[in-house]
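# step 3/5: fold
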Amino acid sequence: MLSKGIAKKVTIYLNEDTQRHLTPLYESILSFLMHKGVSGATVTRAMAGFGAHQLMHTPKIEALSEHLPLKVEFIETAEKVDELLPTLYDMVIDGVIEVQDTNVIKVAMKEKRQPEPRQPHERQAGKAKLMRIFMGAADRWKGEPLYDAIVKRLRMLDIAGATVYRGILGYGAKGHTHQQNFLHTRRDLPIMIAVIETEAKLNQAAGVVEEMLQDGLIVVSDVDVVRLVRSEGANAKLPAS
């Protein structure tokens, strides 16, 4: 790590479109410096400039804007710079490398914020009911998709949660195959809504869904539920059995 005191400042002048192994040269230089443990490096893009070819490069001329000059700078100890220079010398095939003495007055670094320790979780287990509602994606309820209307109604009933699954292939009691194809993309793919709740609340929800469902299936089964809750959310309990 760079420390206070005498050091070396290295400045590399090159052009933005200079390549090395199909990669911008400045990116290759930064990767090399990072790999070698250099404390830090900065690439600065100039607004305009000219070099030994006496050609002005400016963003005002589109053909010359990609050839704008760049400056790569880093500060390190003399020993570290001596170690890096031979490789940098070989990498910079079109540009200028400058090394000058400098004096590091202060090295300040904010402490890296430590990640908050993971809170222990609470395991909750109990009995509940699982309701699965089967329908078609084309089914409607008062002008909107039926599955959307059912989820909204379940939310109004204060149901803990519901998940909508879209099938890719299926058939029902009528024997019709429902699938996604070129002519009827998602026209009537199978839809399933899964809900886990207490028996009392699920019975109420099933009655409401039954009135909305014109052609479908409702399946209710017993389930064992295991829930892992972080300490900050441990007050959210499972449905009572």
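# step 4/5: annotate
Residues 121-233 form a domain with the Alpha-Beta Plaits fold (CATH 3.30.70.120).
# step 5/5: archive (pending)
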